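If you are new to this repository, start here. Below is one unmodified record pulled from the training split, so you can see the exact layout before writing a loader.
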Amino acid sequence: MPVPPPGSETFRAAAIDLGGSSGRVVGAVLDRGRLHIEGVRRFRNRAFSDELGLRWDAEKLFRDAVSGLRVLRRRGEAFSSVAVDTWSGDYGLVAYGGLVEAPFHQRDSRTDRTFPLVDAVLPAADGFRSTGVTALPIMTVYQLMADREAGRLDGVDRLLLMPDLLSHWLGGAQVAEATNVSTTGLALPRGQGWDHDRIATLGVPSRIFPEVVAPGTIIGRVERGILGDGDRTAVTAVASHDTASAVVAVPAVDEHFAFVSCGTWILTGVEVDRLITSERARLAGFTNELGVDGTIRFLRIAAGFWIVNECMREWGLDDWGPRSTTARDELFDRAAARDEPSVVIDTGDPRLLRPGQMSARIAELVAEAGGVMPSDRADVIRLVLESLGAFVARQVDEAAALSGVDVRVVHLVGGGSASAILAQAVANRSGRAVETGPSEATSMGSILVQARAHGAVRGSLGDLRRIVRASTAVRRYEPVVS
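And here is the target side for that same chain:
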């Protein structure tokens, strides 16, 4: 049994973790230096389209999250704290205390028009040199230009990034959490807040941007009636960008590691103490995102299990019923028994980012690589997972070379860590050991930051990671030379 860090005591909290295709509420207790997950409630997150574009049903997400909290609350004692994390980029516009309209989805094509408009006044290359943030169409800055052009910012009181919006609906103050702010394209480097010069250049009203707070800030109490009369659970801002929370829960024993946070997106990188803003880093597609305790996540973002999910949707296997679940499981089992594909595709190709016709997009890339598109669905899944592994291995090599980090082990966390095909492909192609788990890294990172904010545990980021390692069954994959 590991010795609990100073100040360690029993602490019960909940994490609301929202991803691009699903959400979950995780209840956990920290006791004697170990984190125990007590319950998980999962629900669907489906975007919808209207005459204006692709959107998120934020109000339904909130209702589903509250329902999950209530179920877990009935199972045990009250939570001391609750926190929200989501994907980055998207936001809600608030006026007169309510949401103006459903938030736009980062994959909506409106940013195809605004990307060049922003680049004309805020050149992407200049922005990378000053902030270390690479330009991606999904970022807040390009979506805001679309809203400005459409007149949607008229009369708006606040812009709230997605996790801050849901935290506010729970009872938290209208704030912006720093790790998520760092990804918007409108932030000063190193968590110094909003860059109001860039905001003014963009022609967006500065008044709509809320105060920036650090992860670990208590921002309010859950509104009475949400969890029960008299329940005054704290609302805590954690590392609300889901990758930032996931990296908190990487069970690393020293600094010689790369991380792979794998879900809808796959994010591969290293943790450093400085911005890396070389031209080579920019051209390689890397970005610098703020982490907990002033760390920097130097990483590359690309499509992850989004590719698989879109194939499943195309094949009619995206339902959450038992029949679809069984069919998906059988498909993955068959994929595990198949031979490695003769070619792999570049899963970093932007053609894979848009929804719809995923099989056709994959076939196009296979043909360009000199191969033939498999006819069997299990072979397609094997091809995608092997291709993701090859992509991750290249990014690990690139991140190590650009940062100078001596990467000796690759930590694969998040939902994708359950894929033995992916883990072994990364190990084989990178020549490095891969350790997988925890699958609930994002929620575990959130709960540990909550625990530290409330004094249930003290210590450094390394101390929090020791708790994760003591609480997780880590599986190790060694490279196999064929």
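Two things worth knowing about this chain: The radius of gyration is 21 Å. Residues 27 and 324 are 27 Å apart (CA to CA).
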